[in-house]
Amino acid sequence: SVLPEGTRTFSKGYGTTFEGYIKPEYEQEYTFSAVLSETDERVRMFIGSVEVLESWSGGATQVTGTYSFESTALHDISIQYINFDGTSGLDVQWEASEVGREVAATTPTSDASHC
């Protein structure tokens, strides 16, 4: 498999940061969910400088958080992900009262940095 540019590899795993922009359809609170394949994976998600999702100490396969968008403009988003060993997988979704649960589509920036 091909890993994103800027990915750090470990003896049994890897870590990466996905950076880009997200554009909400409505000005309202959204609930974000990150689903991980295994409990040894880690994830953190920021919108701007606000931490929205955090499962950095491990042990969870799903984490949720909320963020209130005050505009429908593009917002910076950063998702940090680490897989220490075994199967890897990350699915980030969002939902709001006007929008059903769906994959949180983002527009990537030109470079991804490592975590």
UniProtKB/TrEMBL annotation:
InterPro entries documented for this protein: PA14/GLEYA
Alphabetical list of PROSITE patterns matching this protein: PA14
SUPFAM superfamilies: Anthrax protective antigen
Residues in PA14 domain copies: 1-108
Name the UniProt record assigns to this protein: PA14 domain-containing protein
Species of provenance: Palpitomonas bilix
